TrEMBL record:
The active site is at D141, D341. One of its GO terms (molecular function) is aspartic-type endopeptidase activity. It holds the Pfam family TAXi_C. Keywords: Signal. CDD domains: cnd41_like (cd05472). InterPro entries: Aspartic_peptidase_A1 (IPR001461), Aspartic_peptidase_AS (IPR001969), CND41-like (IPR033873), PEPTIDASE_A1 (IPR033121), Peptidase_aspartic_dom_sf (IPR021109), TAXi_C (IPR032799), TAXi_N (IPR032861). One of its GO terms (biological process) is proteolysis. Residues 125-460 form the Peptidase A1 domain. Belongs to the peptidase A1 family. Residues 1-22 form the signal peptide. This is Peptidase A1 domain-containing protein.
């Protein structure tokens, strides 16, 4: 949990956060917005309870709303981006791009200050659910399917905040037998078929996230509760051997498109629709994960515009048809398949597209002293001397005239707290044929609606807030 120190030491270790001052702090200068750069809060993160204070939830008028928070805000920046690169490489290989080996030698990788054995971190968003009546804080991931928590007896578990889930204490817990169609559905969800346990006919799963994170255990059913809506017989992984980038959470909520994902399993209840609004890093900011299509509970500032998901049922792919920088459309409009992912931080674009974005951004955001590249980010500025800067708006256009503007907090990535190294928060893929990814840094303060039944994805601007 994040606490604030007494006022006397307020300015001791000020992280400079990107603050969009409320109530008129954002001025519209044509196609630019002002980003206020000023020290704001001292975040004091204590080791023991930094991440997982239970997130709130509520039900209103047919909507099931879970509070979303960001986890691990004090992670070293390079670790976040190192973890991000590992995730992107593993996504690419999963998406059938056999470039994992080439990517190993890519220049962007070589520049990473990755200590071997260093624990990489991601910038994750978390929610709290109940499993058999026990609170579990889990990472929200649209890039994978299986929901799992750490379970006793544990062969090897990382340390988590909440007590471990104990199947023996839940009368409604049922292991799933192997040689069942539910066990077979693991293949689509994890890429690896379930296997029979050696001593009993339970269905054992293995799931590896390719960045070194993994969970292995037993597939089981129990009741879960999402903002007090209970779902009986929910299929999840009871993880007996888990490790990697999960911080102090109890596990992960898989919101992908496979049959085992939470969203597929709850389709009778929520209609296969969910949406989220990811908060900025400002202290105590929170967002929401809304299950169901209760559009009237969104606080969107602009209408929700929809684009079709590409007909590939494995993930959330969209057809990116153009971009504009400061109102200037990139000269070569393009049509490219991109993945939208809640777990990747920085948006990745094909090298040719990235070059257009970078060149146009540099043309418009000129006159600022340059700063060294940082990891995968190669367009950096020294903004230490500025209280505020006006930055060109960046817009994505998707098939079907769905345009969405990146929030002003999602354009620059502050590597240094004093803004002396502020980088354009977009990166190039290593190869032209890799799949682009819309990362979570560019999804902040947007309502992103996943309609898995209608096979469409919607965007609207929103100031994220739980309450
Ligand atoms: C699962 O099915 C295979 C092949 O039909 C069989 O050999 C095996 O004994 C079964 N396992 C269990 C635990 O039922
Ligand atoms: C993407 O959109 C463009 C423009 O509407 C269209 O020409 C192209 O066929 C679409 N690509 C896919 C894969 O649907």
């Amino acid at each position: 949990m994040v606490g604030i120190r007494a006022a006397s030491s307020w300015f001791a270790f000020l992280p400079l956060v990107l603050v969009v001052a409320a109530g008129g702090g954002v001025s519209f200068l044509g196609e630019k917005k002002v980003l206020v750069l000023r020290p704001r809060f001292q975040l004091e993160v204590t080791k023991t309870s930094e991440k997982c204070l239970p997130q709130r939830s509520r039900r209103v008028a047919g909507a099931t709303i879970l509070e979303v928070k960001q986890q691990g805000r004090k992670d070293a920046t390079w670790k976040v981006l190192a973890g991000d690169n590992a995730r992107v490489r593993s996504l690419q290989s999963r998406l059938g791009n056999t470039v994992a080996n080439r990517a190993e030698a890519a220049p962007s990788e070589a520049r990473l200050p990755l200590n071997s054995g260093a624990k990489v971190q991601t910038q994750n968003y978390i929610v709290t659910i109940e499993l058999a009546g026990k609170q579990m804080t889990v990472i929200v991931d649209t890039g994978s399917d299986l929901t799992w928590v750490q379970c006793v007896p544990c062969k090897s578990c990382y340390s988590q905040e909440d007590p471990l889930f104990d199947p023996a204490a839940s009368p409604s817990y049922q292991p799933i037998p192997c040689n069942t169609s539910t066990c077979d559905s693991l293949r689509a969800a994890t890429g690896i078929s379930g296997v029979c346990g050696s001593d009993r006919p339970s269905c054992n799963y293995e799931l590896s996230y390719g960045d070194g994170s993994y969970t292995n255990g037993v597939l089981a059913r129990d009741s879960i509760s999402l903002a007090s809506v209970s779902v009986e017989g929910f299929v999840f992984g009871c993880g007996r051997s888990n490790g990697g980038m999960f911080g102090g959470t109890s596990g992960l909520m898989g919101l992908g498109r496979a049959q085992l994902s939470l969203i597929s399993q709850t389709t009778p209840r929520f209609g296969g629709v969910f949406s989220y609004c990811l908060p900025t890093q400002e202290f105590d900011s929170s967002g929401s994960l809304i299950l169901g299509s209760a559009y009237d509970t969104f606080k969107n500032l602009t209408p929700v515009v929809f684009t079709n998901m590409l007909p590939d049922s494995s993930s959330y792919f969209l057809n990116l048809t153009g971009m504009s920088i400061g109102g200037v459309a990139l000269q070569d409009q393009f049509s490219t398949k991109v993945l939208i992912d809640s777990g990747t931080v920085i948006t990745r674009l094909a090298p040719s597209v990235y070059k257009l974005v970078k060149d146009e951004f540099l043309r418009q955001f000129s006159g600022f002293p340059p700063a060294p590249d940082f990891s995968i980010l190669d367009t950096c500025f020294d903004l230490a001397g500025y209280k505020e800067v006006s930055i060109p708006n960046i817009r994505f256009a998707f098939q079907g005239d769905a345009e969405v503007e990146v929030d002003v907090s999602g354009v620059l990535y502050l590597v240094k707290q004093d803004a002396s190294q502020a980088c354009l928060a977009f990166a190039s893929l290593a190869y032209e044929d890799e799949v682009g990814i819309i990362g979570n840094y560019q999804q902040k303060n947007l309502r992103v609606v996943y309609d898995t039944v209608g096979s469409r994805l919607g965007f609207a601007e929103e100031n994220c807030g739980y309450s």
